[in-house]
Design a protein that fits this description.
Chain lengths: 421, 147
C-alpha cells in the first residue's frame, strides 16, 4: 500500500507472512507490530534499514527496486555500479571485466561509481577545511543514516555534510555530458544505480535534498547477478575490454566501512557500521560525549555497503576481495584535484536544499497530554512481566505499554499472555 | 498546575562507575523525545545532564540526579557526596581540570564540563563545600530559547 507521506523501499507480502515476530524483534526503530498474524510496518517509524528483509525466514519482505525490464523506456541506458559490485564475483574477476559485462547485457554506457567516490573524497576535504562549524561533520552517503538522523536525532541534522553522495554526483555529471554529446534531452537518459541497498530507491523516489534525483532507478545486485555471471563466464578469454575503469583503491574502498575516511587526510575521523552501533554513536554525539572528532562516517549495513541486503557474495569474502583490490589499485588518487576544486567552487556538490529534521511523533501533540500518557505508560510497564516475548504483537513490554498508553484501537492489557484475561 | 502534568524522576549515580555513567542523562533525553520537546532544547538538556552526571562519576563517591519537567522549564539537580570544589571560579574556567591521567586517557578531563553546563543552561547554580560535596541546579526554559 503506497503511503502519501512516507515512501518506503520494502513491503510485506501478506501471502508469505505468517506473523512469526522475527522482523518485529530486529527492527531498530520498533516500527513493526504483528496484527492478526501479519507484520504491519508503521510508515512513520520505518527508516528503510533493511534489517527486517535480512531477518525474515519466509521471504515475506520484498524490496521495491527497479527491474531490469523497466530500463527500456529510456533512449540511452546507463549503468552506474556501486564499487560493491566488484566484490561479488570472486577475487580474480577485475573491475574492467565487470564493467564490460554490464555493457554486454544491455547498457549503452557504464560509468564506474568508484571514480565519483574519489572526487567526493577530495570534495569532503575541501568542505572540512572551509566549514569550521561544530564537529563532528557526519557523512551523507548512506540514505538510511540520513533518515535515521532526521527521525531519531533531529538536533544533529545540521551536522550532516551538505554535499551530495557519489551516486548523485556521478549521475548529475553523466546527464549533462551525455545530453550534450548526443544532443538529446536529459529525460531520455536513464541512469541506474547497481546497488546492494533497497533504501537507494527511497532517496531516488523521495530525495531529501533536491527536487528530483539525477538517478532513474536502482537495480539490485541480486537481480542482475546471474546475467552478469553468465556474461563473465562467456567472456573469460576475451582480453580486449571496451570499458575500462580508471579508479584507484580509494574509490573502490568506498564499498567497505572506513572507505570514505580512508581517502581523506583528516586523522580525527571515525567510521562506524551497522544499525545498532550507528544509533549508539549518534546518541553519544547528541550528548556531547564524542569530542575532537572531525568527520564521522556511518553506514547502516554491517561492514558498510558490502553488507547490504541485496548482495550475493558472503560479506566476509566480499570484504576480503575489496581489500585485495584496494592493494592492487593503490592509494594514489587518479582524479584531477584542481578540476574537483573548480566544481566545488561552482557548488556542484552542494545540496539544493537543506535536510529537515523529522522527529517521530511524540506520545501526544499536546505536551501536558504527552506527560499524562508517559506516566500511564510507566504505570502499565510496572505491571508487565518484562520478558519481551513479543507474543502480544509488540516487540517488547515497553512498546506494548506505549501502544496501550496511546490508546491503540482494540488493544487491551489482556493481550499479554502472562497477565491473561 | 496539576500534579499530572509535572514529571519528576530521580537517578542514583555511583562514583567511579564509568560503565553505567551516562545512563541517567540518556534516559532523560529519551523522555524528552517521547514528550516531543523541541530538538534543540533536548540536545542542551542532554549535554548539560551528561556533563553533570560524568562529574559525579569522575570525582564523587556517589550522587543523586533529580529531573523535573513542568510546563515552563526543565530542572536538573545534582547532589553529590564528593571532595567539593575549593575554588568554583577557577573550576568554571574552560580548560581547567583536576582529572587524573587515567581519566584523560578515557577522553575525559578536558576541563569543559562545568563551562559546557553553563553554556547550555538558562540558569546555573553551583554550591560546593570542601569535604562534603557539590550541588548543581541546572534550569533550561522550554519557551524562550537560549541563543
Amino acid at each position: 500500500m503506497p503511503d502519501p507521506i512516507f515512501y518506503h523501499s520494502i513491503k510485506v507480502d501478506e501471502k508469505k507472512c505468517i506473523g512469526c515476530v522475527v522482523c518485529m524483534k530486529v527492527c531498530p526503530t520498533k516500527a513493526i507490530r504483528i496484527k492478526e498474524k501479519k507484520a504491519v510496518v508503521n510508515a512513520e517509524r520505518c527508516i528503510d534499514c533493511g534489517e527486517c528483509y535480512r531477518a525474515c525466514p519466509y521471504g515475506a519482505i520484498t524490496p521495491l527496486t527497479t527491474k531490469t525490464s523497466d530500463i527500456t523506456r529510456f533512449k540511452i541506458k546507463v549503468a552506474l555500479p556501486s564499487p560493491v559490485l566488484y566484490s561479488q564475483f570472486g577475487s580474480n574477476v577485475m573491475p574492467d571485466q565487470i564493467l564490460n559485462a554490464l555493457k554486454e547485457i544491455g547498457f549503452d554506457y557504464v560509468y564506474d561509481e568508484a571514480l565519483a567516490c574519489e572526487m567526493i573524497s577530495i570534495a569532503i576535504e575541501e568542505y572540512l577545511e572551509r566549514n569550521k562549524s561544530p564537529r563532528p561533520i557526519i557523512s551523507s552517503t548512506c540514505p538510511v543514516v540520513v533518515r535515521l538522523i532526521q527521525r531519531l536525532f533531529p538536533s544533529l541534522v545540521s551536522l550532516i555534510i551538505r554535499m551530495e553522495p557519489p551516486r548523485e554526483i556521478a549521475a548529475k555529471n553523466l546527464k549533462r555530458e551525455l545530453s550534450k554529446e548526443h544532443k538529446i534531452s536529459e529525460q531520455d537518459i536513464g541512469i541506474f544505480h547497481i546497488t546492494s541497498c533497497p533504501a537507494k530507491m527511497v532517496s531516488i523516489n523521495k530525495p531529501e535534498t533536491m527536487e528530483k534525483s539525477y538517478l532513474d532507478g536502482a537495480i539490485s545486485i541480486k537481480e542482475i547477478y546471474n546475467q552478469l555471471m553468465a556474461q563473465l563466464k562467456r567472456k573469460e578469454h576475451n582480453f580486449i575490454l571496451q570499458t575500462q575503469s580508471q579508479a584507484s583503491g580509494i574509490g573502490i574502498g568506498w564499498a567497505i566501512s572506513g572507505g570514505e575516511i580512508r581517502g581523506i587526510k583528516q586523522d580525527a575521523s571515525v567510521s562506524v557500521s551497522g544499525v545498532y552501533d550507528t544509533i549508539r554513536i549518534l546518541s553519544d554525539v547528541e550528548s556531547g560525549k564524542i569530542k575532537n572528532i572531525e568527520y564521522l562516517e556511518c553506514l547502516i549495513c554491517p561492514d558498510g555497503c558490502i553488507g547490504g541486503p541485496l548482495t550475493v557474495e558472503n560479506r566476509f569474502l566480499a570484504k576480503s576481495h575489496i581489500l585485495k583490490l584496494i592493494r592492487k589499485f593503490g592509494g594514489k588518487n587518479r582524479i584531477d584535484i584542481s578540476y574537483v576544486k573548480q566544481l566545488y567552487e561552482k557548488n556542484f556538490f552542494s545540496f539544493e536544499r537543506n535536510i529537515q529534521p523529522k522527529p517521530f511523533s511524540p506520545l501526544d501533540p499536546d505536551k501536558n497530554e504527552a506527560i499524562r500518557k508517559l506516566k500511564k505508560k510507566e504505570r502499565i510497564l510496572k505491571n508487565l512481566p518484562g520478558i519481551n516475548c513479543g507474543v502480544c504483537g509488540a516487540p517488547d513490554c515497553e512498546s506494548f505499554a506505549e501502544d496501550l498508553a496511546k490508546g491503540e484501537k482494540d488493544l487491551t492489557i489482556g493481550r499479554c499472555v502472562f497477565l491473561g484475561e | 498546575m496539576g500534579e499530572e502534568t509535572r514529571l519528576s524522576e530521580e537517578f542514583e549515580i555511583t562514583g567511579g562507575d564509568f560503565i553505567n555513567g551516562g545512563m541517567a542523562s540518556c534516559r532523560i533525553k529519551n523522555i524528552l523525545k517521547e514528550i516531543g520537546i523541541d530538538a534543540e532544547i533536548t540536545r542542551r538538556v542532554a549535554i548539560a545532564s551528561y556533563e553533570a552526571e560524568m562529574n559525579v562519576v569522575m570525582y564523587a563517591k556517589k550522587g543523586i540526579m533529580k529531573f523535573i519537567l513542568d510546563s515552563h522549564r526543565i530542572t536538573i539537580k545534582v547532589e553529590d557526596e564528593g571532595p567539593g570544589i575549593p575554588d568554583i571560579e577557577l573550576a568554571m574556567q574552560p580548560g581547567y581540570s583536576t582529572a587524573t591521567p587515567e581519566m584523560r586517557e578515557m577522553g575525559f578531563g578536558a576541563g569543559m564540563g562545568l563551562p559546557n553546563i553553563q553554556k547550555n543552561a538558562d540558569i546555573f547554580n553551583i554550591v560546593s563545600t570542601v569535604g562534603k560535596g557539590t550541588n548543581l541546579e541546572i534550569i533550561i526554559n522550554l519557551n524562550n530559547k537560549n541563543a
